[in-house]
């Protein structure tokens, strides 16, 4: 996979978990500079990594925001697994009860 050297304003806003207006404000105060001569508003990935506190060697790691999102998704998934296991246990109890009733009927009939 080819590594991106630039990122769009929309992608950067999503990456940082903010609005495109917030990106524009950061640009206005000089925190980040747009690349000129491109058809869309784009920023250098190297500059993004620096602002995120990542060295060049760390550029394949996720951003702090992406890390937080991953943690939240994992916690939500764990909670969902617990809920589904609980529901499965309830279903198993009902099924076992029905199987016992069926077995009793068969014994009484036979």
Structure commentary:
It is a single chain. With 110 residues, this protein is mainly alpha-helical. It has two domains: 1-61, Multidrug-efflux Transporter Regulator, Chain: A, Domain 2; 62-110. 64% of the residues lie in helices and 7% in strands. It has four helices and three strands; from the N terminus they run E-H-H-E-E-H-H. The protein has helices at residues 9-16, 20-28, 45-51, 64-109, and strands spanning 6-8, 34-35, 42-44. A three-stranded antiparallel beta sheet has the order 1-3-2. Strand 2 (34-35) and strand 3 form a beta hairpin. The termini are far apart.
Looking at this protein, list some descriptive labels.
coiled coil; 2 domains; 4 helices; mainly alpha; 7% strand; 3-stranded antiparallel beta sheet; 110 residues
SSE map:
Layout: E1 6-8, H1 9-16, H2 20-28, E2 34-35, E3 42-44, H3 45-51, H4 64-109
Antiparallel strand pairs: 1-3, 2-3
Helix pairs in contact: 1-2
Name the helicity range: 55-70%
Shape: rod-shaped
Structural class: mainly alpha
Q: Quickly name the level 1 CATH class of the largest domain.
A: Mainly Alpha
Rg over CA atoms: 27 Å
- Biggest sheet, in brief? 3 strands, antiparallel
Using DSSP, what is the number of strands?
3
The assigned CATH architecture of the largest domain is Orthogonal Bundle
Classify the beta-strand content into a percent band.
5-15%
Write down the CATH topology of the largest domain: Multidrug-efflux Transporter Regulator, Chain: A, Domain 2
* Rounded mean pLDDT score: 87
Keywords: Coiled coil
Coiled coil: 67-94
């Amino acid at each position: 996979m080819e590594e991106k050297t630039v990122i769009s304003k929309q992608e950067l806003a999503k990456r940082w978990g903010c609005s495109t207006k917030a990106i524009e404000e950061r640009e206005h105060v000089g925190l980040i500079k747009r690349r000129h001569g491109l058809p869309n508003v784009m920023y250098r990935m190297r500059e993004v990594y620096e602002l995120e506190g990542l060295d060049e060697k760390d550029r394949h790691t996720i951003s702090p925001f992406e890390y937080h999102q991953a943690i939240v998704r994992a916690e939500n998934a764990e909670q969902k697994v617990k809920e589904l296991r609980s529901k499965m246990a309830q279903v198993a109890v009902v099924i076992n009860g029905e199987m016992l009733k069926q077995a009793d009927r068969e014994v009484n009939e036979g």
